[in-house]
């Protein structure tokens, strides 16, 4: 009986790994590039006692095309990434970079202050600092 090394599957990346496997199977053997389509920016969320810190990878997205909505218990990031090719007579030979609209909706465990969100977009990374609501002692 042969024993293969055990490699745990990271569920967070399972869908992406399956897509890559099928793209490799279907397109790779013919030397073709997979078609482009909708995409989702990858997001990291950190929490401190006072705030949530959210970082989203949004390379190639115009900061004016990113919309952030915060309410007491959720965050929504939406936007649009356009094609980088401005030459209208150009024909795509291999299009791998995803483009189009995206929406990420993130529920937050604790109530936050939607009026004092700090936002920074630098080097293709959107950073949000979302303060938590201060708990007031009962009167």
UniProtKB/TrEMBL annotation:
Domain SHSP: 34-139
Pfam family, one: HSP20
SUPFAM superfamilies, A to Z: HSP20-like chaperones
InterPro entries in the record: A-crystallin/Hsp20_dom, HSP20-like_chaperone, Small_HSP
Top-rank taxon: Bacteria
Protein family membership: Belongs to the small heat shock protein (HSP20) family.
PANTHER family reported for this sequence: HEAT-SHOCK PROTEIN 20 FAMILY MEMBER (PTHR11527)
Name of the featured protein: Spore protein SP21
Organism: Gimesia algae
Gene: hspA_5
């Amino acid at each position: 009986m042969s024993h293969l090394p055990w490699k745990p599957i990271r569920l967070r990346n399972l869908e992406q790994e399956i897509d890559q496997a099928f793209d490799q199977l279907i397109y790779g053997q013919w030397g073709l590039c997979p078609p482009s389509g909708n995409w989702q920016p990858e997001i990291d969320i950190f929490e401190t006692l006072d705030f949530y810190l959210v970082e989203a990878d949004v390379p190639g997205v115009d900061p004016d095309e990113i919309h952030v909505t915060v309410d007491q218990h959720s965050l929504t990031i939406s936007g649009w990434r356009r094609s980088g090719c401005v030459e209208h007579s150009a024909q795509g030979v291999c299009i791998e970079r995803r483009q189009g609209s995206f929406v990420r909706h993130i529920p937050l465990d604790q109530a936050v202050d939607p009026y004092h969100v700090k936002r920074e977009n630098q080097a293709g990374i959107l950073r949000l600092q979302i303060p938590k609501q201060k708990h007031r002692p009962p009167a």
